[in-house]
Description:
12 helices; 5-stranded parallel beta sheet; alpha/beta
Amino acid sequence: MEIHDMPKNLRTKLKVAGFLVPLLACSAQSALAQSALDCGLNNGEKASGDPIVLGAIVGKTGPDDFSASASAAAAYFKCVNDNGGIHGRPVEYVVVDDQWNPKKAAELATYLIEKRKVLGMVGSSSFVECSANAKRYASNGILAIAGSGVPRDCFHSSGYVPLNIGPRLSSTIAAMHAAKAGKVSKMVCVIPNIPGLGDWACGGVQAWGKKNGISVQILTIDPANFSAKDVMTRAADGSPDVIVLNLSKGLLLPMMAVAQQMDLGKSIRFVSSAPAYSTDVAKRLGDYWKGRFHANLEFMPTNHTGADSRNWVAVMDRYAQNTDSRDAFSQSGYLAARLVTQVLLKSDAKNINRASLTKALQNVKSFQSDILCKPFSVGAASRHNANISGPMAQFNGQGWDLLQGGCVTAADPELADLR
């Protein structure tokens, strides 16, 4: 379950269990983790046969750490391996870091596909690897069951299936919520200028706004080189009613600090896509944003009392590091690993290969978990975006309060063909 030695030019020797991500565990979650673990065969026997090799590519080092999905998937696979594996065969999970670099992501895909002979990709989370590798996976008969998809190519490919809603739908749901709080005529949506992201993710807000008579300006930023003061100044120009932040946590927090300094929260409604919903963000926001900041959740809340939610927390407490994130991206990685494990356990363990695993995954029609708003399907379509609903939460000065209304489905015109 470790990252194995790779060619020096790839500079990758990481241990999954050592990923450093923001601490998000809380006492409430620990209390939920007291139930017995549910992993694979649940027989308490360590797997020791011929390994089944699976891979993941994450954006760990760069503008922000985006590796939480694979950390959770790694924890789940460790639990599976301690409980019989896949009918005796352990899962060998190889996770590599693309450093937010598309060229690096492509090199790593070559390593995983050709050198490690992975049968599938599970729990990946990256801002750049979908665009670099989605077609490559499809041409090699590999299906990537990703934890967290970000740019357009993650959701518009036959070879890539993210468990999460994605930034486009998440920000659209956040904008829909903001519009219910009062009259809205103008919105600004802030997004990194990464190809396939900056020209797409805020497009859902814009398309929805056009249908509802709301003007939406898209403001792109360079995640590696930006001034939070400059971004907030430009976002506030024209006095928008709502600012939608479609950013990772590391980019969002300095924006919120500057917005507070400028006292923008008194006159502008602030909402965010899913990355804001975390204990780490809540700890750093402060009393100023109490009742003034709302975020979408791509899944049910992290302290949900459902059986699978409790199992996710228990798995993380037992097999992950204390520093590994317990947030929406962790939930998505856990779900990806659990889905693939269920499929593998229904397969002939002696004859699992890329083709058989891909076909079996494509036949998934109703993967269920209380972490999800609705059952999840895969299929063999040319695009995948099965998860399209999530609830909203309000910052209460210390943490997040789930808002009434339950799961909200994104009213993005781009979903018309899927519906």
